[in-house]
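Lecture notes, unit on protein representations.

Consider one protein chain, 300 amino acids long.
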Amino acid sequence: MYGAIEAGGTKFNLALANDQGKIIKEKTLPTKSPQEVLAQIISFYQDHPVKALGLGLFGPVELDPKNKNFGHLLNTPKEGWRNYPFYQELNQALPQTNLVLETDVNVAGLGEYYLGNGLGKKSLLYLTVGTGIGGSYIYKGHPLQGLSHPEMGHILLRPHPKDSFSGTCPYHDYCLEGMAAGPSIYARYQELGQNLGPHHEVWTFLAHYLAQALVSYTVILRPDQITLGGGVMHSPGLLDKVKENFQAYFHDYLPLPPLDDYIKTPKLKDRSGISGALLLVLDEKTKKQLILDANLERGN
């Protein structure tokens, strides 16, 4: 049996898969304090032991195994989680389980690269727009990694001329996460985005910021495909507004695929993250079979 965890700022998705990589049981937990969440995760996997567990953890998180703070949350704005040694605590509680760590957005990117929009492509950029904003660049099957993982949600932006808001990020004014993640909507209007109509001005603002970011990622990384996930992207019409703004700002500077193919929402819908977390720990034979099945389903 295999396990997978997609650990986001709003909720944790837990999964149990059989030896063929098929998910047979799932559980969702709200992201409360790390101690509360850990206790429930430990209980779940003690009741359902697994030989390996893929963990996609929200960040920033230390991914260098040589660093003394490996597996620690770093300067996350999530209250109560900053500098918490989440990986170490979970690893100690499940000593018989091989625990593999990645970021939540990297596992979502891997899920889409291998099983979704990235099928048959060399590279894919995944951006999640939800409680926070994070980005992952997958190139030839591997996430981009330098000193640490990219923090694509913190690039700086030009504000929309009608938007007087400076952002929710405690570290930077006018950064993408502070201006376009879910909490920025509530901070502006004291209302959740899902309660605002599709013609509300906020979607004009968010499309402006997301399109700016995609232009930057496009000229720097030149991905074959961009996937926009996360709860905010569920807003009706937002994807079309992002593409319209992207086209206006990019000015056909470089050759790209048709925008309807280049900028899309996840093929796996809300399953990208948990699928990618599972891929971290599957043996190569099982992983190849899942990819083959996905290709056959797409008619490739």
